[in-house]
Design brief:
Blueprint lengths: L4 H4 E5 L2 H10 L1 E6 L5 H12 L3 E9 L3 E4 L2 E4 L3 E8 L6 H4 L2
Antiparallel strand pairs: 1-2, 2-6, 3-6, 4-5
Length: 97
């Protein structure tokens, strides 16, 4: 399915684990559209953020079952992309966070 490049990247992931990855291996994380593939994610990151991408790892995260008393619900499924940037590249939005 064709997904607009502005809709591919939903938001950046700012967790302790991804912060450690960014410092060690120059890897950043994003929540991406559930139907986006590696090629679309690469094109969106390179076009919108003006950096070169070395490789992309994608994970489908299943939503958890949560309970509140006797009522149970389910969180949404989502897709995570770990984008490794080429040597010497960095994102300014992560530097200020």
């Amino acid at each position: 399915m064709k997904v607009d490049s502005h809709r591919v990247l939903i938001r950046p992931l700012l967790t302790e684990k991804i912060t450690g990855l960014r410092e060690k291996t120059n890897t950043v994380g994003f929540v991406v559209h559930p139907e986006a593939n590696r090629i679309q994610i690469r094109q969106a990151v390179e076009a919108l953020l003006k950096v070169k991408v070395e490789k992309i790892n994608i994970m489908n995260i299943r939503g958890k079952i949560k309970r509140l008393g006797r009522f149970s619900g389910r969180r949404s499924d989502w897709k995570k992309a770990l984008v490794t940037l080429k040597e010497g590249e960095k994102l300014e939005m992560y530097e200020s966070a």
